[in-house]
Amino acid sequence: MIEKNAVQIFNFIIKTLFYMTILLIIIYLYGYSGVGQGNFIYNEF
Protein backbone atom coordinates (compact mmCIF):
# COMPACT_ATOMS: atom_id res chain seq x y z
CA MET A 1 0.00 0.00 0.00
CA ILE A 2 1.22 3.46 -0.88
CA GLU A 3 2.01 5.66 2.08
CA LYS A 4 -0.42 8.45 2.84
CA ASN A 5 2.36 11.06 2.74
CA ALA A 6 3.43 9.95 -0.73
CA VAL A 7 -0.12 10.33 -2.02
CA GLN A 8 -0.40 13.80 -0.48
CA ILE A 9 2.92 14.87 -2.01
CA PHE A 10 1.85 13.53 -5.41
CA ASN A 11 -1.48 15.37 -5.20
CA PHE A 12 0.30 18.58 -4.20
CA ILE A 13 2.69 18.35 -7.17
CA ILE A 14 -0.13 17.62 -9.62
CA LYS A 15 -2.24 20.52 -8.34
CA THR A 16 0.77 22.86 -8.39
CA LEU A 17 1.57 21.99 -12.00
CA PHE A 18 -2.09 22.34 -12.97
CA TYR A 19 -2.49 25.80 -11.45
CA MET A 20 0.91 26.96 -12.70
CA THR A 21 -0.12 25.96 -16.23
CA ILE A 22 -3.36 27.91 -15.94
CA LEU A 23 -1.47 30.94 -14.62
CA LEU A 24 1.02 30.81 -17.50
CA ILE A 25 -1.83 30.56 -20.02
CA ILE A 26 -3.51 33.61 -18.46
CA ILE A 27 -0.24 35.59 -18.56
CA TYR A 28 0.30 34.57 -22.19
CA LEU A 29 -3.21 35.62 -23.20
CA TYR A 30 -2.82 38.91 -21.33
CA GLY A 31 0.36 39.67 -23.27
CA TYR A 32 -1.23 38.55 -26.54
CA SER A 33 -4.22 40.86 -26.06
CA GLY A 34 -1.95 43.90 -26.39
CA VAL A 35 -2.82 45.45 -23.04
CA GLY A 36 -0.29 48.17 -22.30
CA GLN A 37 0.49 48.86 -25.93
CA GLY A 38 -0.46 52.01 -27.73
CA ASN A 39 -4.01 52.38 -28.95
CA PHE A 40 -4.31 50.98 -32.47
CA ILE A 41 -6.36 53.99 -33.62
CA TYR A 42 -3.30 56.24 -33.46
CA ASN A 43 -0.99 53.93 -35.38
CA GLU A 44 -2.17 55.21 -38.77
CA PHE A 45 -1.64 58.90 -38.05
Automatic annotation (TrEMBL):
Presence of the UniProt keyword Membrane in the record: yes
Domain of life, source organism: Bacteria
Keywords linked to the UniProt accession: Membrane, Transmembrane, Transmembrane helix
Residues annotated as transmembrane: 12-30
InterPro entries: DltX (IPR021008)
Protein name: Teichoic acid D-Ala incorporation-associated protein DltX
Source organism per UniProt: Weissella coleopterorum
